[in-house]
């Protein structure tokens, strides 16, 4: 039986799926990798990989979900009964659970910083911003409390269901995200000295395109679309059976690429105009950007805008991570959804507490990494690549042929022969490519 939950429109599905894909990595890491790995040259390579690798994998998850109308675990059981393939759904649940457990920690920091920016306690704080960030992350009360607040926001939205919660929030947050980006880009591109930052970000330099950069582009081409954890299986299960999924998939890819490009246009010109060096990761958001905005006119307003943007991106991703777990337990039963959401949300919060505390307690570090870093490593380097390989193999070899033909008609109805090429990619090309990314992430490649 198909789930009773459904998106109210195609645009609702697109915005929610794009929100799931657009996360912190697209804003605080990817732009800097572009800039340091060949600028426009790297962006072209990433674009090709995203269309040639990420898009087919996204379509694979869409096909599984839309074909069955069921959440991840039940979808694999429906397509491959009396087999172990449903374990891929459980792997997706485990991946999303672990990911949200530490992702919510960063989300909590963003909530805390956003509230500080609104109260005027962030800019001109009278301290080094690195010291403020260290005090925030190492103080158990602040770190765990802000994580709890972020999870509460996520739970409240997901508990309201697909239509009244996730889709409604995505319809507000995603357009809001792009409006905030436009405001920041206009501000950034009107600053004196911004030209150097624009050149740093976009000027093509193929000499800086080394093997490491190409491998990163490979990995990011599917990680950035939120494939591998079966999130998109669950989201596409809420699509009306008569709705095509080809154009929505292209829209999700386009919005993701646009976000990465807009992030760079908003950040680098302003950084260079302020005479500051670009960085990536938490240091960019919590240390460099506040220091940068302090030097600019109306900086307190624009840092609040930037933090709101980050908060929107983080929350929309968190919705999808919690939804796959909730959907598996509620089985489309609206009466069970609220209880399942609160139960799963609280369990994930508790799992994330060690990650929240690992920045202030040496006891939570082992093997040279904190609990937070080990969780990140397990998800990014092990669980997601394995999930991607299994999904590609499943659709390539185990998906019932007649049902796959029906799904292909919903993807590219005018290109019947495209299914042959698609199957070749899934069976022989994509698993090998993802395996290379996996081995590189584990430092097992001989070169």
Show the helix and strand layout.
Blueprint: H1 10-21, H2 24-36, H3 40-68, H4 72-79, H5 86-119, H6 129-138, H7 140-158, H8 161-189, H9 194-202, H10 211-223, H11 231-236, H12 246-273, H13 282-294, H14 299-330, H15 334-357, E1 365-366, E2 369-370, H16 371-398, H17 401-411, H18 418-441
Antiparallel strand pairs: 1-2
Helix pairs in contact: 1-8, 1-12, 1-14, 2-12, 3-4, 3-10, 3-12, 3-16, 3-17, 4-5, 5-7, 5-14, 5-15, 5-16, 6-13, 7-14, 7-15, 8-12, 8-14, 9-12, 10-18, 13-14, 14-15, 15-16, 16-18
InterPro entries: Na/ntran_symport, SNS_sf, YocR/YhdH-like
Protein name: Neurotransmitter:Na+ symporter, NSS family
Transmembrane segments: 12-30, 42-64, 85-115, 141-162, 174-194, 214-238, 250-276, 296-329, 341-362, 382-399, 419-439
Describe what this molecule looks like in 3D.
This protein is mainly alpha-helical. It has a single domain, classed as Amino acid/polyamine transporter I, CATH 1.20.1740. The chain contains 18 helices and two strands. Strands 1-2 form a two-stranded antiparallel sheet. The longest helix has 34 residues. The protein is globular.
Structure, briefly:
By secondary structure, this protein is an all-alpha fold. The protein has 18 helices and two strands.
Poorly predicted segments? none
Give the count of structural domains. 1
Using only CA atoms, what is the Rg?
Answer: 21 Å
Protein structure class: mainly alpha
Question: Can you name the CATH architecture?
Answer: Up-down Bundle
Overall 3D shape = globular
Strand proportion: under 5%
Element pattern in H and E: HHHHHHHHHHHHHHHEEHHH
How many strands in all? 2
Largest sheet: 2 strands, antiparallel
What does the average pLDDT come to? Answer: 89
By CATH, the topology is Amino acid/polyamine transporter I
The strands making up the biggest β-sheet line up spatially as 1-2
Number of helices: 18
